[in-house]
Design a protein that fits this description.
4 strands, about 220 residues
């Protein structure tokens, strides 16, 4: 609840004054938690503007994105700026010249552009689309976080497990690849992640532990 929402909710002037005094302290107590909540709000608003799903579905998708961002922020010790940099742009149409990974090009369902972290929910988006494009976003974020000079060892290890399964030497090699060179691996991850959420089956035995961890992060929001 923001200070403005609290003011509208509390009719008593004395209580209102107390709320105004307390809210800044609450927001400043944990800047990371505040930044994560802001990220969730940004995604929820963008999903609503895109207008592809019902409010209930949008809420679930925003909750899932929030769980991923929160976990990544904690694992990578991200500050508010780092958290804001992770947040994807959610749109309902693609801009000209965008280089994207497409869920289903022939039916215009969804796309993801890594360079701008844009998730596009297109005309024929269905309930699988946000999950599929989120898979691309998760993979991109995992590699970007692992490439940070101060990345924790376990974050680097997770990225390397993926890279080994793709036959890619290391994260530096991955980041030097063009999008077309990464495309097959991106689609393998996104389809595999989407399937794992449905069936609990990872694409390979090596990825079972990582996919299980991803799923536990996403489901933690409901516990």
């Amino acid at each position: 609840m923001t200070a403005a929402e609290a003011e509208a909710y509390v009719p008593d002037e004395h209580l209102r004054a107390e709320v105004e005094q307390l809210m800044p302290n609450i927001e400043q107590t944990d800047p990371r938690a505040h930044a994560v909540e802001q990220a969730k709000q940004t995604i929820a608003e963008a999903l609503a503007v895109a207008g592809r799903f019902t409010p209930t579905v949008n809420k679930h998708y925003a909750d899932l994105a929030h769980a991923f961002i929160r976990t990544q922020a904690e694992r990578n010790n991200l500050d508010a700026a780092g958290i804001a940099a992770m947040v994807p742009h959610v749109v309902s149409m693609l801009g000209e010249g965008m280089q994207t990974l497409d869920q289903s090009p022939e039916t215009a369902r969804g796309a993801f552009e890594p360079s701008s972290k844009t998730i596009a929910l297109l005309e024929h988006a269905d309930l699988s689309t946000f999950l599929h494009e989120s898979g691309h976003w998760f993979l991109h974020a995992t590699m970007e976080n692992a490439a940070h000079p101060n990345a924790p060892a376990d974050v680097k290890a997770d990225a390397q497990i993926l890279l080994d399964s793709y036959g890619v030497k290391d994260v530096e090699t991955w980041r030097a690849m063009t999008l077309d060179e990464q495309r097959q691996h991106h689609e393998t991850f996104a389809r595999g992640f989407e399937r794992y959420l449905r069936e609990g089956k990872a694409p390979t035995a090596e990825l079972q532990t990582m996919f299980s961890r991803f799923r536990s992060w996403l489901l933690s929001v409901y516990k």
